[in-house]
Every structure is written in structure tokens, then in C-alpha cells.
Amino acid sequence: MTKPLTKLTLSVAASAVLVSSAFALDPAVTNFGYVYGGSNNLTIFNASDPTKIKTITGVVGESVGISPTGAWLYGTNNAGTITKYNVYTGASGASVAVGTSPISMTLSSDGTTAYVVNRDSDTISIINTATNTVTATTNVGNFPSSVVLSPDGSKVYVTNGSDNTISIINTTTNLVLTTINTGTFPSGIAISQDGSKVYVNNYFGDNVSIINTATNAIIATINVGINPTGITLSPDGLKAYVTNGNSDTISVIDTTTNIVTQTINGITAPNGISISPDGSKIYVTSGGSSLYVIDATTYALTTYNSISTSTSSNTSPFISPNLITGTLDISSAADMTTKGFTNYVNFAGGTLRATGSFTLSSPIYLHDAFNLTYDDSSTFTTVAGGTVDTNGNAVTLTQRNKHLQRRHDYHRRTS
Predict the structure, then answer these.
(1) Over pLDDT 90: what percentage of the chain?
(2) 218-228 residue pLDDT tens
(3) CATH 2.130.10.10 describes domain 33-304
């Protein structure tokens, strides 16, 4: 379906729908972070203002799996289950029995499948997120800890700490294709957006291995700080950020030259690391009971002591997708990606206003009306639906992912 528009208003009646179609986050955009803070609490914070927090009790684990739309997440539980939570209400839903000590997970780009690492079972549980059932269990190496999915969804890479290896799983058969030897005790893992390189932290090797995914060969080894744990890549793929737990530092790697170009100091026992969808801010969890936020251009550091992360490794990314909550100006489809809307265009009562002509083919997600109340009793409120304002430009929404479409209700309105 192709629709040239003048102005399109999208709305929902009761449930969310899917329709195919710098320095700081734009004021029209917001997103959230999720970290386990100990004492069976999961903390939700506003990524643009981490002083705004909400606590969900009863979550025992080190990782979350956030849906691509940001509407729900899975939280791990040391008892051997993961539980689905509504992001905005904090209400718990279905619990899924997996292996022993689920420690990290990743979701497919469409959110239909979750891959959960069971550290003490030496397995990966593969979950259908619609039915909340385990569809397969795959044996991997000894003491697995981290997992990443290739951008095309065809392969899963799992670090096996005690074996000094990575298992590569075929997502069609759910079988291990091959095993790659790495450095000593691989921990954190990340993959480039084009899927050509995998970056692996070697915890006891104090270095990072870079693997060519076409040949499954290590093409470079980069020395970093002591006991690297977490790793994340900038959205443009030009930098890798590595937490060095026993150096109290972050190593910044230029992925073009494979050289450490910057060392960020002042962080106590950094472990988990994530980045905002637009690449402007880096978020670091810490054994020092704080959340650290780093400006990705100046490397200026801000500490938020109100968010406890003392027992959290957060080996999975913990920053949610962006939501359009105000008026967001967009000049092109590429501009959407730059501003952090890679897989979905997430409307939460806001307006996407065109400043140029373009075709938008990313799925559009319309959030229900929600009211997130923070622990300080302040609220974040928005309403369902959103508006595409062409602003006098030619804008086309192209439906490509028909399997994502649900009931929708929209009408055209002239400017």
C-alpha cells in the first residue's frame, strides 16, 4: 500500500497498532532506560532526565530484553524464569520458564523472538514472544554470558566464558553452526550494523577480539583496560565503547583504525553499557551504585546516585527505542535513522513534520495512551496516536511488512 499524503492523523481505539508505512535528544523525542538495582527492583528512568525514575519490584536479574516498539520488556529472574512487563504501568504479565540463571538476552528486530542465555545450564532458550513459550533449547559452551543477533536475523553469537569460545547458532534450525576460539574468558559482545564484524571482550585477557563474520577469523586484537565486561557500538559503527571493571575506565575504540583513541576516567567499577538510539549519550551501570551518563562528543561525565546499579551487570542493552512525543522535524528517511528510529517509527501522541520530501517504509507503531508516574510523583503523560504533517512536502508511507499490520483507524486531513 502506498499513500501520498498531505496530512495524516493516526489514532487507536483501545490497543496499539502497527501500520507499515547532535548532542542531546530532540525535545520531541524521549526514551527510557532499565537497570536492575538490587533488592529485587528494576529501575525505569527517563533517559533524557535520569532524575525521573520508577521502580518495579519483584524483578531479580541482570538483564532485560526490550521490545522494538518499547511498549514491553522481559526481565530475567534468578529462579530460572523471565517475565514480561508493561513498560508504562509496570504490570507483570506472563512468566516463561527457561534454564538456570538466565543472565542476558536479545530480541529479534521485529520483537517476535527472544534469545535467552542460561549461564548455569550452558544453554540458550528461544522464545516465541507472542505466546511466551520456549520453542527450542540449544546447548552452547561452558558458562555462557552474552548474546547478540546478526542484523539480518540469521545468526546468534554467544560468548562461552569457561571455554574461551563463541558459539554461532543458525536461527532457522536453532543448531550451532560452528565454534570460534577467542581470548581468555569472553564476556561482552557486540556486532556491527552491517553484520560484518563481531566485537568480543576477553575479561581475563584485558583485550577485545574483532571477528570477521564472513570467515569467522579474528582479524584484530585490541588491548583495553583491566577486566573488560560490557561493550556497545555507536549507531554509525565508527566507535566501540568498552567498560573496564577493574580499571574504573571506559575505552573508546576507533573501529576504522582499531586503535583506542580515548580513555574515560572517573567511573567506579563500570560494567553494563548502552547508548541512546541517536548516539549522543552513553549510559553506564556500575558496581559503585550509580548510573553514569557520558556525552558521546565531549565525553563529559554526569553521575546519578539516585539510580542504584550495584549488583547489575546489564550485559544486554538497556536503553529503549525512541518515542515521538512532541513535534519532530524530519528531512528524509535517513534523518529518521539519524534521530534514532532504526526499526520502528514510534508515535506516542506526537507529530512527525516533514521538512523535505521522502518515502517512509519503516513500520509505524501507535502507542496507547499512557501515564507513567515516577517515584517522585511526577508524571510523563501522552495520548494515543500521532500525526504525519507533510508541511507542504511530498511524503509517502509504504507498507512493506504486511505481517506486522493489525487493526488500524486513520483518516486524511488537509493542511
Answers:
(1) 60
(2) 999 999 999 99
(3) yes
For the purposes of burial, counting CB atoms within 10 Å of the CB of 8, is it exposed (0-12), middle (13-18) or buried (19 or more)? Answer: buried
User: Quick one: CA dihedral 303, 186, 38, 68, positive or negative?
Assistant: positive
What torsion, rounded to 10 degrees, do the Cα atoms 197, 233, 243, 159 define?
-40
The span from the CA of 350 to the CA of 338, in Å, is 18
C-alpha cell at 180: 570460534
Domain limits, the chain: 2-22+323-412, 33-304
Could you give the 3-state DSSP secondary structure of residue 162?
Answer: helix
Give me the residue label for grid cell 563463541. Answer: 166
Higher pLDDT, 170 or 286: 170
Higher-confidence residue of 80 and 42: namely 80
Q: How far apart are CA 18 and CA 351, in angstroms?
A: 17
CB 18 within 8 A of CB 36: no
Render 284-321 in DSSP notation, one character per residue.
Answer: EEETTS-EEEEETTT--EEEETTS--TT----S--BPP
Write out the three cell numbers for 143. Answer: 558458562
pLDDT digits (tens, 9 = 90+) for 43-81: 889 998 999 998 887 776 678 899 998 889 998 877 799
